[in-house]
Amino acid sequence: MTRTIAIIGSGLIGRAWTVVFARAGCTVRLWDAATDVRAGVIAQLVETCRVSGDDPAALARVTVCDTLEAALEGAEWVQENGPERLDIKRDLYARMDAIAAPATILATSSSALIASSFAGELAGRARILVAHPVNPPHVVPVVELCPSPDTDPQVMDRAEALMREVAQVPVRMTREIDGFVLNRLQAVVLAEALSLIEQGIVTPEGLDDTICHGLGRRWTLMGPMATINLNAPGGVADYLERYGPTMARLADSAARGEAFTPEVARLVAATMPDPAQVPALSQDRDRRLAALARHLSDKPGLTDP
Amino acid sequence: MTRTIAIIGSGLIGRAWTVVFARAGCTVRLWDAATDVRAGVIAQLVETCRVSGDDPAALARVTVCDTLEAALEGAEWVQENGPERLDIKRDLYARMDAIAAPATILATSSSALIASSFAGELAGRARILVAHPVNPPHVVPVVELCPSPDTDPQVMDRAEALMREVAQVPVRMTREIDGFVLNRLQAVVLAEALSLIEQGIVTPEGLDDTICHGLGRRWTLMGPMATINLNAPGGVADYLERYGPTMARLADSAARGEAFTPEVARLVAATMPDPAQVPALSQDRDRRLAALARHLSDKPGLTDP
Question: Name one GO biological process term (chains A, B) (predicted).
């Protein structure tokens, strides 16, 4: 049976999700609150496919709907990509919970809001979760699945299975946590990076080189735990015995929230291309991420050490 | 003129550096304190090249020397890869500083020791620095160049130029700092990662997936600063204004040194392959890192956003 997926909100993330589900063979029903956005979305999806090298023929499975009700009709999964505002999410989830069939799962792409903050009072709160992608999900496979205290574990099981079926990589959290996993890790890196730049130890370019020609290379092939497992003859336990005290000392001396200052923001911004180039650079990034994904998956086993 | 490089210590790092310099056309003079290690090193270098896909013909430029004096003869750069022990480094640098011609630069691969800790008292302290690679440097290009307070800025200029000439990516620090840049960033990631695992929020596998199928993908193509520059319409300044407060809150609630416990080490180790597999897995990692480096450099401009 063909799966039917509803995409709510057709910005960059919503369009990327549309490609993920459509190329996996799902029927996709897309809705955006803005009429003019809906009118242009198919042309934008063709452009998304052109950049990533995905076959636009998959877009034949996409229907643009005129109402939220029409989009949710027959959907087993709703991927919502609305604005990151609590009032909007509360209204939207109340509406969707009233409309959607009982077995429909409602998932938000939100990076900033936990599910309990907008779903805690709803009758259907057991079927609501966060499915947070990395932008954009059609070229970066990870999806963080974060339940609220009310989310049914069977809903989490279904979410995990669906994500694998559409070739994403689900990461399941056991309970709700601010920032989920990915942004918690990104936050500590940004804090220490900004501090090193602000102190003048390294330039923003040097900081970026350290990751993209160094740690990032290893972390693309295996995560931080698998990485340290190969950095001592006796594996991860040996590594943590040898280097744990040094790493603990470095972590203790690292910067935290105070590193996010307007001064360092200006310092870093001064080294970056004009913000007018952000859309073109983002397209280039997506093209390169798609090529990297093909490189990694073209060689079976490469991404699973 | 062909450059002459001395490699001191022929463990994994020393052998990888040998390949870096030899394939770039340098004459390499290699010495190891252990006679039996010296005897087997060419065969090991052939194996290193086999795994990474480097042409072993470059090894014709490598001479294995019987003494430290012979290795340093005529060398403009010494890359030292001895044990990470302060007493050994102090003895070795005193010897090398006495032997080496005045213009020779002495660089250590040390990740744990800052240059002032073993070079501060030597007559030639102005020509001594840290050139810290990511293991192994022949397949991961970044090299951290960290001066002591005594290192001559012209020595740093020469170090940077040489590293670019042999196709590595130098990252220059302006002053000495514990952990340099790379391990400071790795330390904060490990601390928060171990804490999330210990709290049971995510499994070690899930943690690794979050990076290697998520953040790591982006960080291979561009560093953390270039990444956030594309995560808001107005670039990095816009990003830090929108999301800085959230990231600061996450960084403030992140774990630090206390996360490195024996309990979590056991927990992670239990999910990893048997430590006996570390050598085979490391070879596989190096093969994949080499393939990744070829993928990235085969497309000019890809690694320089």
Answer: fatty acid metabolic process
Q: How confident is the model at residue B297 (pLDDT cuts 50, 70, 90)?
A: confident
Nearest residue to B295 via CA among A295, A252, A175, A14: A295
d(CA A95, CA A82) in angstroms, rounded, equals: 13
In tens, the pLDDT along A195-233 reads 999 999 999 999 999 999 999 999 999 999 999 999 999
Query: What is residue B16's three-state secondary structure?
Result: helix
8 Å CB contact of A244 and B265: yes
- Out of A142, A250, A303, the one facing B183 most closely (by C-beta) is A250
Weakest mean pLDDT among A6-10, A34-38, B55-59, B295-299: B295-299
| Low-confidence winner among A61-75, B156-170, B197-211, B285-299 (lowest mean pLDDT) | B285-299
pLDDT band at B112 (very low <50, low <70, confident <90, very high): confident
C-beta atoms of B292 and A289 within 8 A:
no
User: Per CATH, which fold does B4-172 belong to?
Assistant: Rossmann fold (3.40.50)
Asked if A207 is an interface residue toward chain B (Cβ–Cβ < 8 A), one would say yes
ipTM score = 0.95
pLDDT tens per residue across span A116-167: 999 999 999 999 999 999 989 999 999 999 999 999 999 999 999 999 999 9
Contacts of A181 in chain B (CB under 8 A): 196, 201-202, 206-207, 210
List the domain boundaries for chain A. 4-172, 182-272
Measured between beta carbons, which residues in chain A are less than 8 angstroms from residue B267? none
Q: Are the C-beta atoms of A116 and A173 separated by less than 8 Å?
A: no
Tallying the residues shown for chain A, one arrives at: 305
CB contact A86 to B (< 8 Å): no
> B114 Cβ partners below 8 Å, 6+ apart?
B130, B146, B148, B176, B177, B178
The reply to whether A4-172 and A182-272 are identical in fold is no
Size of interface A-B (CB pairs under 8 A): 395
Angle at A70 between CA A67 and CA A71, to 5 degrees: 90
pLDDT score of A303: 36
List pLDDT tens digits, range B43-53: 999 999 999 99
The C-alpha of A132 sits at a distance from chain B's nearest C-alpha, in angstroms, of: 11
Q: B182-272 in CATH: which number?
A: 1.10.1040.10
